[in-house]
Design a protein that fits this description.
Elements lengths: L1 E5 L3 E6 L15 H12 L10 E2 L8 E7 L2 H12 L4 E8 L7 E10 L6 E4 L7 E13 L2 E8 L6 H8 L22 E9 L6 E5 L7
Parallel strand pairs: 4-10
Antiparallel strand pairs: 1-2, 2-4, 3-4, 5-9, 5-10, 6-7, 6-8, 8-9, 10-11
């Protein structure tokens, strides 16, 4: 995997599609474990146990900027920024149909299915649902579809995937939400830019990840 930025406090990688963000009980590999092995291999003291935790999540099938903390205090600082909604996130997607407007805002209410694997989208609030909002902009039309720039205002589970599918524009590869198959464990959803405040210096830190070559 490609390292975007690294210092003594944090690590940012360009996560490839197919890796989970966090390590857990699942049998498939995680970006957290892969990044830790990379850091250990490059360490002057590989015998010392290192700390590395994902600050946020990207869907396994998506790619792009993933930020990891090298200490618990840095993790707490960065997670607090996400909770305060001061982090700026920008995504690129390819969808199978052209949205009705060149630049628009989607406002819905999302709720997980009982098994927790999918997000259901509602135009009005229902019991157990949460407000979800994103803005999109058409960058270019691609055949019958389009490439979009996405600016999420909230960070709900499968938000971008579910909201775009709800308006008839599922993401290429996202068979769970009605899109056509593209390749195994991958959809055309890419976290291209993440802007945070550095947890130690307080300076703005803008992290950018180029699109996968197979796009």
């Amino acid at each position: 995997m490609d390292i975007i930025f690294e210092d003594p406090f944090l690590l940012a990688i360009n996560k490839p599609a197919g890796l989970s963000s966090e390590s857990g009980l699942a049998s498939h590999p995680s970006a957290e474990n892969e990044a830790l092995q990379l850091v250990v291999a490059r360490s002057a003291r590989p015998d010392i146990k290192l700390y590395l935790r994902a600050v946020h999540r990207l869907d396994r099938a998506s790619s792009g900027v993933l930020l990891l903390a090298k200490s618990k205090s840095v993790l707490s600082n960065l997670m607090a920024q996400f909770e305060r909604h001061t982090v700026e996130k920008v995504y690129l997607v390819e969808v199978v149909a052209v949205p009705p407007e060149a630049d628009g805002t989607l406002r819905h209410f999302l709720k997980r299915t009982p098994d927790g694997k999918l997000a259901l989208v509602f135009d009005e609030q229902v019991s157990g649902s949460q407000a979800a909002e994103l803005r999109y902009r058409i960058l270019e039309k691609t055949g019958g579809g389009a490439r979009l720039e996405i600016f999420p205002a909230t960070g709900r589970f499968h938000q971008i995937r579910a909201q775009l599918a709800h308006i008839g524009c599922p993401i290429v590869g996202d068979t769970r939400y009605g899109g056509p198959f593209w390749q195994e464990h991958a959809i055309k959803l890419h976290a291209c830019r993440l802007s945070v405040e550095h947890p130690k210096s307080g300076e703005p830190l803008v992290l950018e990840a180029p699109l996968p070559e197979n796009w």
